[in-house]
Design a protein that fits this description.
Strands 1-3-2 form a 3-stranded antiparallel β-sheet. The longest helix has 25 residues. With about 100 residues, the protein is an alpha+beta fold. β2 and β3 form a beta hairpin.
Length: about 100
């Protein structure tokens, strides 16, 4: 959720957050679309660009479906992961202080 805290509920932050949270596996576009509620057609445009820029990598093919995962070999992706974690922590602290009831 860290990237979405800063960049909003747009398709790109939704996809990045999903892949950051579920980093252990690779996913086809259809699963990413279903999990993030971003249209398949939109992801068909976004994902190849992320692969071209080295943010995502195509890991394998299962039948006709290409599988994608974040490219943690990229320094940019590692920094994005750190940013998302810091954003989550900051967002959590702000929400916690808003819920605090004065004594």
């Amino acid at each position: 959720m860290g990237v979405r805290h800063v960049f909003g509920d747009k398709p790109l932050p939704k996809a990045i957050d999903f892949l950051l949270v579920h980093r252990e596996w690779d996913y086809p576009i259809s699963t990413i679309a279903e999990a993030t509620h971003v249209s398949y057609r939109t992801l068909q445009k976004i994902i190849p660009e992320l692969v071209r820029r080295g943010v995502l990598k195509e890991t394998r093919e299962v039948g006709k479906a290409k599988m994608y995962a974040l490219n943690f070999g990229s320094e940019s992706v590692r920094k994005l992961d750190e940013f998302a974690l810091a954003s989550d922590l900051e967002f959590g602290m702000k929400n916690r202080s808003k819920r605090a009831v004065p004594a």
